[in-house]
Specification:
alpha/beta, DNA_Partitioning_ATPase, eight-stranded mixed β-sheet, Rossmann fold, Chromosome partitioning protein, AAA_dom
Length: 324
């Protein structure tokens, strides 16, 4: 019997493992005796991440605006946002990350300035500056931009209540004309862990929702409320919004529970759930403390390879939908 009655388990393929490039010969050109070492393998993986073939990922014909949302905290929203954005940027695609969480964790991970007084998403929401004026280039990649969140954003929900078209403030700021100044291929909006007015603004401004789900016991609790809110936004504010991606995070292959949650999610959401899962990784957790994504902090790690595989899957799925 299912642990979660609202989700019916199904026979689905097991999660894909991140691809591991084979180590090159380390024997001074003698191909007859290939020497394998863990360090050589990780170096090969790191090289494949830092020097990818840019032709691997298709450029979308239409700009994709993706909201990353889940009202449950600690499921990997910000981590997934910045690492997926970095993975796409490494492949030559131009990506804009909008930090809509007052904690400013995405800004920290992308190493952009977000002290009080810095031009930020708060000024964008109240109409003082444009999105291009607030965007900063991340040191992570010249293709990666971030609109930071400062502590001023903490009071934004109260201020927005009295504003005209309060649910559409971000949508107005992300008009095609405004985004054309930056010309991003992808826009990722990192939401706070709540279903408040900031999250609603993010959903109204986007065409797609990406939901990270942690592979643990409480992962699916409250998910029905998130899905209900998305339905309400679709019915009343943004009929073009769709749940395009479910990303399973913090997967621990040593536990049966992780497999059960994975099966529950895939049984309910079907092909919307990515085949790639993100493993629980110390390197992924450490990277933001150094103002980096895991792809630059430890490019050969399992976490880095997994986020790279997830980004490839998102890009190719989008191209298939556009071509359909």
């Amino acid at each position: 019997m299912s642990v979660y009655p609202e989700f019916q388990a199904a026979d689905v393929p097991r999660e894909t493992k991140p691809s591991k490039p084979k180590a090159k010969p380390t024997n001074n050109g003698d191909d007859s005796a290939v020497v394998w070492t863990p360090i050589a393998e990780e170096a090969a993986r790191a090289a494949s991440v830092l020097h990818p073939d840019e032709s691997l990922l298709p450029r979308p014909t239409h700009r994709r605006v993706i909201t990353v949302a889940n009202q449950k905290g600690g499921v990997g929203k910000t981590t997934s946002t910045v690492n997926l954005a970095a993975a796409l940027a490494i492949h030559g695609l131009k990506v804009l990350v909008i930090d809509l969480d007052p904690q400013g964790n995405a800004s920290t991970a992308l190493s952009v300035e977000h002290r009080s007084g810095t031009p930020s998403v708060y000024e964008v929401l109240i109409g003082e500056i444009s999105i291009a004026e607030a965007a900063q280039v991340s040191p992570t990649s010249p293709n990666l931009y971030c609109v930071p969140a400062t502590i001023d954003l903490a009071g934004a929900e109260i201020e927005l209540v009295s504003m005209v078209a309060r649910e559409s403030r971000l949508k107005e700021a992300l008009s095609p004309e405004a985004l054309d100044q930056l010309q991003p291929d992808y826009v990722f909006i990192d939401c706070p862990p709540s279903l408040g007015l900031l999250t609603v603004n993010a959903m109204v401004a986007a065409q797609e929702v990406l939901i990270p789900i942690q592979c643990e016991y409480y992962a699916l609790e409250g998910l029905s409320q998130l899905l209900r809110n998305i339905e309400l936004v679709q019915q009343h504010l943004n009929p073009d919004l769709a749940i395009s991606t479910i990303l399973l995070t913090m997967y621990d292959g040593r536990t049966k529970l992780a497999d059960q949650v994975t099966s529950e999610v895939r049984g309910h959401f079907g092909d919307v759930a990515l085949k790639t899962v993100i493993p629980r990784s110390v390197k992924v957790s450490e990277a933001p403390g150094f103002g980096q994504t895991v792809l630059t902090y430890d490019p050969g790690s399992r976490g880095s390879m997994s986020y790279l595989d997830a980004a490839k899957e998102i890009a190719h799925r989008g191209a298939q939908r556009e071509g359909a």
